[in-house]
Structures are given as C-alpha cells and as structure tokens.
C-alpha cells in the first residue's frame, strides 16, 4: 500500500462542487498528466477541450441530462477521439492514409487513447484533493455538442470530465467481486458460478442502497442494469461515427 494506491482505491464520483475555479497551473498539470498516458504506437489520437465559456457549459449541461454539475464545477474537460491531425499528416507527407484512418482498428485506438489520457487526468486531479465525475451524457446529442465545440471531421467527443473542489463527498460504491472481473489463463464462463457471484453482489448493492437512502431504495445491480440496458439509447451513434470519418471498414 502507498499513497497512489490509497488514492485510487478512495475514488468516488463527485457531483457537487464549491464555486471555485481551477488555477491555470492546475489545468496545465492535469493536461500534462493526461499526455503522459500510454498511447498506441505513439499515435496520440485524442484531444482535450477545456470549456470555460459559461454559456457553452450551460448548453452542455442541458444536453447531458440536464446535469447541473456539468455547468457548476472547477473546470470542464471534454475528451475526444481525434484523427484530424492525422489527416493533416497525410497532407504534409503527400500520402493517402484514408484506408487506415477510416478503419475500425483506428477508431478503437482513438477511443482507447482518449480513455487512457482521461484516467491519468482524473488521478492527477484526485491527487490534488479535487473531485471528478465522468460525463457520458454529452453523447446524448453529439451533433449539437459538435456544433457548440466546433468539432471538425475525424473528431468525436467521447465524454466529459468535470473537476472541482468537492462540496460533498458521496459514498464509495462497492464494485463487482474480483472473482467476477479477474480471470486467469482464459475467461472463466461457468454459467452457474457466474450467476452465483452476481447474486452475492446483488445482496451487497441492495444493502448499500438501503443504508445510503435509509430504506427508500434497495434495488439490486442486475435489476438496475436490466432496466437501463432495456431502454434504447443513442441509437444514432453508428451514423454519426461514420459521418465523422471513423469506422467505415
């Protein structure tokens, strides 16, 4: 155990922030830490947009939920899969890279690069005793988000990261049992064992909710997931991704 591990294990999403902006030094350090993340084959296929304009933050907050903490925080970062610069590389080097750039593989590379960078940013922020919350809700309406953020071809806003000084620290949610997540030497897919692990986790989550809400809520994780996944969500995504020049083959 060390300070880094303690900080990682103490993670929880923060959705209420003090009315205090991050300093330029804090923002620069968080971005520098994001850039220090691993990147596939040195491609660096991501970009980060910092949103400080109050009107833009308000619009993004409305599109994301509405979620007030997207507007009211210390700083809002939007992480994007980005192959725009690689189009520019093709021009500079007088070569056609479209087959590679438009492949499903490069789409995955860009998404993974952005996620790795974002998690480094999140850990850097938390190490400063700041709170963070990932915002997937910006994908509710990417065409409008793209207009607000002036997103060019070959770029896709994937998620936002709100960072700030926590007003209230929420409880830490129990994660799935490690036996359900970690497999040795191959995927352990015994159906009954898998279901048994999920049933045990359901009991843990139900107790967590019951305690947190003083008995007002005690649903299970599988009930929650079945309800959420049973609703169609963001079904326009394939068309948008292809329109932006990704994942055509």
From TrEMBL:
Nitroreductase domain segment(s): 9-165
One Pfam family cited in the UniProt record for this chain: Nitroreductase
Statement: the UniProt record of this protein carries the keyword Oxidoreductase: yes
Keyword list, A-Z: Flavoprotein, FMN, NADP, Oxidoreductase
InterPro entries documented for this protein: Flavin_OxRdtase_Frp, Nitroreductase, Nitroreductase-like
Xref: CDD domains: NfsA-like
Superkingdom as given in the UniProt entry: Bacteria
Official protein name in the record: Oxygen-insensitive NADPH nitroreductase
Family, per entry: Belongs to the flavin oxidoreductase frp family.
UniProt lineage: Bacteria, Bacillati, Bacillota, Bacilli, Bacillales
GO molecular function: oxidoreductase activity
Organism: Peribacillus butanolivorans
């Amino acid at each position: 155990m060390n300070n880094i591990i303690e900080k990682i294990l103490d993670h929880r999403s923060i959705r209420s922030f003090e009315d205090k902006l991050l300093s330029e030094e804090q923002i620069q350090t968080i971005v520098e830490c994001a850039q220090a993340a691993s990147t596939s084959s040195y491609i660096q296929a991501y970009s980060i947009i910092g949103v400080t304009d109050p009107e833009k933050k308000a619009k993004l907050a409305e599109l994301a939920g509405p979620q007030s903490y997207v507007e009211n925080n210390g700083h809002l970062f939007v992480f994007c899969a980005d192959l725009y610069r690689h189009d520019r590389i093709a021009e500079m080097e007088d070569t056609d890279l479209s087959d590679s750039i438009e492949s499903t593989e490069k789409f995955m590379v860009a998404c993974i690069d952005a996620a790795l960078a974002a998690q480094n940013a999140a850990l850097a922020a938390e190490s400063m005793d700041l709170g963070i919350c990932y915002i997937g809700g910006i994908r509710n309406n990417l065409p409008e988000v793209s207009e607000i953020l002036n997103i060019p071809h070959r770029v896709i806003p994937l998620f936002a990261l709100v960072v700030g000084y926590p007003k209230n620290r929420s409880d830490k949610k129990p994660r799935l049992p490690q036996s359900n997540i970690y497999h040795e030497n191959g995927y352990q897919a015994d159906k009954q064992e898998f279901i048994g692990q999920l049933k045990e986790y359901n009991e843990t989550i139900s107790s967590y909710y019951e305690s947190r809400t003083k008995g007002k809520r005690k649903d299970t994780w599988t009930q929650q997931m079945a309800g959420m996944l049973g609703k169609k969500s963001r079904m326009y995504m394939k068309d948008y991704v292809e329109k932006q020049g990704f994942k055509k083959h």
